[in-house]
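Case study 2.
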Amino acid sequence: MMLPEDLMLLFLDEVAGGVRMDSTSIHNALAGAVLLELVNSGRVAFEPDGKRLAVVDPTPLQNAFLQESLTRLNKPMKPQRAVEKLRNHVRDNVMAQLDARGVLTVEKTKILGLFPIKTYTLNDVQVVSDLRRLVGVVALGYRAPDDRTGALISLLYAVKGLHKVFQGDKREMNARAKEIAAGSWAGVAVKKALDAVHAAVTAALVASTVAATSGGGSS
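Prediction:
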């Protein structure tokens, strides 16, 4: 599975149902994961000055979700702007990917018969439990990170979500995640992209939280 799909599975609560974090955090983290996926695919890279990301290979991707995401990066832009461009409908799109894989089933319903919402039913709880265990042993310091687990932990750390996704001491997990984010487990190009995405997700989360607060205060 792709990085955004793994991340969405970690956000799901396989016991109680629902999700473990707020929608703003989930959307920003998933957008960061999509951006990393595009960088890893070789379609997106930093410009020579290292400040903006741009599409460097327009060859269509086989995955329709990633291809549609790639078209949103229609000009060179800073990582934070890229995250903002990619987060629109990202949760629904990733859930649709998981539905297509048979991991879960997305169902449309209405609250009070009026307000449409989407719910899900996990078809394979073990997939989520196994993934949580795989990433959790790294988050808790029992195993060294690799490209996959290191990226997932860094994205969760960016939205302050580790303690909501894994059981353990919040301070210790954050300290461990900080070490992972600063570590040398990834190649130079991947590490540069991950650092930029981590900062971009954090900044986008702050900006969207401030906007929501301001909007609530003015109503």
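The chain has a mean pLDDT of 90.
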